[in-house]
Structure formats: C-alpha cells, structure tokens
Amino acid sequence: MQRARNFNPGPAALPLAVLEKVQAELLDFAGTGMSILEVSHRSKDYEAVHNAAQSLMRELAGIPEEYTILFLGGGASLQFSMVPMNLLGPGGSADYIITGAWSQKAFKEAKLVGAPRIAASTEQDGKFTRIPTQQELDLDPKARYVHITSNNTIFGTQWHQFPETASVPLVADMSSDFFWRPFDVKRFGLIYGGAQKNLGPAGVTVVIIRKDLLESCREDIPIILRYKTHAKDNSLYNTPPVFAIYILKLVLEWIKERGGLAAMEKENRAKAERIYGVIDAYPEFYRAPVEKQSRSFMNAVFRLPSEALEAKFLEEAKAQRFVGLKGHRSVGGIRVSMYNYVERSWIEELASFMEAFAKANA
Ligand SMILES: *Cc1c(COP(=O)(O)O)cnc(C)c1O
Q1: What span, in angstroms and rounded, lies between the C-alpha atoms of 86 and 203?
Q2: Is 346 a catalytic residue?
Q3: Is-above-0.90 flag for pTM?
Q4: pLDDT exceeds cutoff 90 at 1
Q5: Which of 48, 112, 185, 261 has a 20 to 30 Å separation from 2 between CA atoms?
C-alpha cells in the first residue's frame, strides 16, 4: 500500500502512527476483549480515555481551571446556533466579524436567536482576501460577545493577532486552526471547533468555555442544547462520540510526544513558508489573491493563469498521488491545506512539483 500525499481540507490527514495504533487496538481495547466501539461510555475503561483527552488538551494548550472543556456532536455548524442560543436572549446583541463563508453562516444562525450586528466585514465582490485591522472594527461595548473565525478555510486567510475586545468576551470558531501553535486561551470567553481539520477525526466538536460565561448561559432552551447540561455531566449527558474522542486522545498523545504545540508551530511555519515561497517565486504563474499579512498558515489558496492550466495541474498532481488540492467550489483554483499532520516531506514534494509545473507551463 502507498499512502496518498493528503492535502484534504477536512476531514484531513491523521498521523500514520495513530492510525496504526487504532488498528492494533481495534479488536481488544485495554485488555477488555472488546473493541472500543463495543464498550459502554459509562465504563471505567472509556472514562479513562475521555478524561485523558481532556487533560491532554489542558496540558498542551495551557487551558486553565477556570475553563470547562466539552466534547459534543453536531460539528462546528451546531455551535453556530448553540453559541447564540446559550449566550443571547431574544433581542440580545452580539458582534460578528465577517471574514468568510463560515462567519457568514454563524451570523445567519445568530440572527434567528437574537439581534447580532456586523462589527466588520472584509467582503468585496463576494470574496474575502484579508482580515480587518483593529481600527476597522466597529465594536459595541454592550455586545454579549464578539465572534470571529480564526482561520478561513475556504478563502485562506487567518487572524495572526486576535482582536482587542475590552471586557466583551471573544468567541472563536477555531475549526481549521485549533492547536496549530501555542495560543492564549485566556484571551477568549469561548472557543469551538470541529476536530476533523487540524485536530483529529470527524465526529467530535470541542468547546472550551470560561466558567463565568457558562454560569450565565440560558436555561430556557432545550436541555440537550444547553452548555450547562454537558458541563454538569462532563460531556456524558448522552452518549458522546466515543470513537472520535478515543482517536483525539491518541492524536494529542502524538502531539505531546513530538514536543507539543511549539513543535507544531515550527513545523507548520516551515511548511507554509515553503509553499508560499514557491508562489512568490513565480508571480507571473501562481497568483495568490490573499493579502500577504492575512495569509493562512493552514490553507494556501492560489490561481494559475487559466482554468485549463488549473485542471492540468490537478490532473498531473493526482497522477503523482497528491490529493485534495482542488479549491473550494465557491473560490475555484487550488488550495493546499497543510494542517498539523500533513507531513513536511509531502510539502517538499508538492513544492518541487509546483516549481517544475510552473517551469514547464509558463
Ligand atoms: C469546516 C468548518 C466548519 C464546519 O464544520 P462542521 O464540523 O462540518 O460543522 C465551520 N467553521 C470552519 C472555520 C470550518 O473550517
């Protein structure tokens, strides 16, 4: 078997060592004579996995005790509505900073619950090519929270400095750059993300919420949709996504073995620099629509001189086992997703391929 060089935007590549471990333990988990897929979520054996995943997250990201970590289902998309449901009353206001399709979706859900405002939007002709500056933000000091998308998976932009929101809690959708580097959790009131891009497998959504914010959450909404319900039962109110949490735990152990988030950042920076380096070396051939200071370290988006050349690029790439490079259908072009577990060697091989392709087709 030859593994693909996997640049899928999500679900995305996982470490081979983790997949092998899953395979090795699949039929007999922790000496139970059963698969992890077959044991109760209330069993001691599973509970150890559940709690280890939480404490590894705490350790790796330095998440202080005043924050609760939840493992939920429903993807980041459910959080688009759970956040306003829990934090906004009818007519309650929150500020949304719109930097791409995912923030637009989050805003749409908030409008169904309360009265959110747009504090800034960088949309131009239906496209987003940058992150706004602090000066551009029209923040309401009475807002319940400020919502951002930390990395715009589709348009390839990323917040490199989080906005200052004074005493208003900052809420971030970190689905596509969760744990890409060390970050200061204390800057946030709430962080959420589906695991399947930069963190782990699909199926589990991680929510990190500050306890004072948790205490202030509404209780007049469906029980299953309350953060308080899940916090009170340590995310075991109902059956959690057991298998996804188990793999998440293995992935977190893998990150720890490799040197933690500082090591992730070093790798991720080197990978992005290599790809953007090729783009910048062939400015007549590779066109990056995103402003340099807003470039994403996770998703590099670029165009070629024609759609025909883009099709040829994808075809030749596929023949060489490079997969997942087609840009999102709303943007077109090419997208290189280079999350935590995309190997440096794949990036090196892709960069060489890009150089050769530019030379052959310029
Ligand atoms: C993929 C993605 C989502 C949607 O995640 P689901 O888990 O499919 O709901 C939301 N936000 C961002 C930034 C994403 O990249």
Answers
A1: 22
A2: no
A3: yes
A4: no
A5: 261
Whose alpha carbon is nearest atom 8 of ligand 1? 75
Query: pLDDT tens, 236-269?
Result: 999 999 999 999 999 999 999 999 999 999 999 9
CA of 93 to the centre of ligand 1 (A): 23
Q: Where are the domains of the chain?
A: 16-257, 260-361
52-66 pLDDT, tens digit each: 999 999 999 999 999
Percent share of the chain, pLDDT over 90: 97
Instruction: Please tell me the CATH superfamily of domain 260-361, with its number.
Output: Aspartate Aminotransferase, domain 1 (3.90.1150.10)
Tokens linked to 23: 């395979």
| Measured distance CA(7)–CA(258) in Å, rounded | 21
The answer to whether 270 touches 344, Cβ cutoff 8 Å, is yes
16-257 belongs to which CATH class?
alpha beta
Mean pLDDT of 115-132: 96
Catalytic residue among 95, 159, 177, 197: 197
* Residue ranges around ligand 1 (CB below 6 Å): 10, 75-77, 102, 149, 153, 173, 175-176, 194, 197
Q: Measuring from atom 3 of ligand 1, which residue has the nearest CA? A: 76
Cα of 77 from ligand 1 centre, angstroms = 6
User: Do 53 and 172 meet the contact criterion of CB atoms below 8 Å apart?
Assistant: no
Locate 358 and state its tokens. 């530019």
Mean pLDDT of all residues in 153-171: 97
Cα distances (Å, whole numbers) of residue 277 to 21, 50, 339, 350, 355: 35, 41, 17, 12, 10
Q: Which atom of ligand 1 has the smallest separation from the CA of 150? A: 13
Active site residue 159: no
Residues 305-354 have pLDDT tens digits of: 999 999 999 999 999 999 999 999 989 999 999 999 999 999 999 999 99
Buried b / exposed e over 103-123, threshold 16 CB at 10 Å, is bbbbbebbeebbebeebbbbe
Which among 172, 167, 207 has a CA at the least distance from the CA of 75? 207
User: Which of 95, 102, 177, 249 is labelled catalytic?
Assistant: 102
Residue 102 annotated among the catalytic residues of the structure:
yes
Average the pLDDT over 184-207 and give the result.
97
